[in-house]
Specification:
By secondary structure, the chain is of the alpha+beta class. The protein has three helices and four strands. A four-stranded mixed β-sheet has the order 2-1-3-4, with helices on both faces. The chain is globular.
Length: 88
């Protein structure tokens, strides 16, 4: 798989929203890159910059450059369908 086709998930292991979003990816067998912002200061800075100074997680970056922040499962699934990661 090309790196440009990968979804990037910035989050923390203790965050319920992050765990829930990761579960959606795993249940649908979608490959993604996981970045724990607790262990990566550059990633944390990126999340804060993207979210107007807040550590809002998960922050999910799609290959088309679009971003979802703390999405409900329904919104995430809709985006995954729209971007061709899930076929229904």
């Amino acid at each position: 798989m090309s790196e440009t086709k990968k979804i990037i998930v910035y989050g923390t292991p203790w965050c319920g929203d992050t765990r829930r979003s990761r579960k959606v990816f795993e249940e649908n067998n979608i490959d993604y890159e996981w970045i724990n912002i607790n262990n990566d200061s550059q990633a944390e800075a990126f999340v804060k910059e993207t979210n107007h100074g807040f550590r809002s997680v998960p922050t999910i970056i799609f290959p088309d450059g679009s971003i979802l922040v703390e999405p409900k499962d329904e919104i995430l699934i809709e985006k995954l369908i729209d971007t061709g990661f899930i076929f229904r």
